Amino acid sequence: MKILIxxxxxxxxxxxxxxxxxxxxxxxxxxxxxLIRKGSKLNKDRLMKNSIRNYKIDxxxxxxxxxxxxxxxxxxxxxxxxIEVSRKNPDIVFNTNLIxxxxxxxxxxxxxxxxxxxxxxxxxxxxxxKKIKKNFNFKKRINxxxxxxENFETTLPSSLYGFTKLASEKLIKEIFFNRxxxxxxxxxxxxxxxxxxGKQDQGFVPLWVARHLLKKKLSYIGxxxxxxxxxxIIHVDDLCEIIFKQIKNFNKIKNITFNxxxxxxxxxxLKDLTLKCRKISGNKIxxxxxxxxxxxxxxxxxxxxxxxxKYYDWQPKKNVDQTVKDIYQWLIKNKKVKKFFx
Length: 342
Ligand SMILES: NC(=O)c1ccc[n+]([C@@H]2O[C@H](COP(=O)([O-])OP(=O)(O)OC[C@H]3O[C@@H](n4cnc5c(N)ncnc54)[C@H](O)[C@@H]3O)[C@@H](O)[C@H]2O)c1
Known about the structure:
Mean pLDDT: 95
Distance between the termini: 41 Å
Number of helices: 13
Structural class: alpha/beta
Bound molecules: nicotinamide-adenine-dinucleotide
Number of strands: 13
Low-confidence stretches: none
Largest sheet: 7 strands, parallel
């Protein structure tokens, strides 16, 4: 079995590539990545050590993609994943996330390849997600239990990022309609773990851990600057495990959309994440408050994992403490990665 992972030198793509290399002994794994993301070159080195070849191609270069060898399965992890880039650089988001998907679909059509697409919880309507806030007191950090399933409202706006993900999902369904190739769409919430070169607007968990370790500043941004916004966090190892299960069961379970995340047990506010980072690092750092909220930001997101659990008997194994610990140890062990968080 030949597998191509696009965005394969990114955080999620590189972790999936190495995981599958170890678990699918007979598979040949390749990646496609133009190395634009900071840290992606270090991930490429990891791939090379695991005998995984990267094609340095821009996802918008359809001609070069169509010239690649035939793959049985493409796992599409290529995107500009930062929500805030939606406003500052819409061309990048639109081209990479939507034209890129189209090019991958053309490649799937040419070779009859199956597709696993990494979509996002950000396909859901910002207005509807904000309504959950009604039950949410930002100063008192009230724990709410509402979870988001696959039927949650997707009315726009959801950010250009969310739009390109939803449009990609629709394109996949349109193009794969009535064909023999199979697809799966996974809408992930916040994913975290080692080899994630996180920044304030994308990948906040490693940023939080690293800044505590390095004794650098952080800010609580938005919703009054209290740090009470809540997300559920899935460890990248749990993500890899479910992708593995999906590949193994692809003949039986196909052409479906799933929400996948850490779930209620692994949901946490920024403020509580700070406490965990203080504990593991032994450092208390200055965290400033920026009360103004980006119109793309949401106060709360917790995944309803009921559907994915039902289909695959899967649930996340690693809790937030474990995720923080794994990231901390990764930072301690790898001198080269610390500079990305300064
Ligand atoms: N990290 C999360 O919390 C999260 C949550 C939900 C969904 N996702 C989705 O998962 C996928 C992977 O996310 P990630 O966190 O690993 O992001 P990432 O930025 O670490 O990885 C994306 C990779 O794509 C590459 N890339 C970007 N533009 C490219 C282009 N034009 N041509 C070729 N390569 C290009 C980058 O160099 C990078 O290595 C994305 O589709 C993202 O939308 C991520």
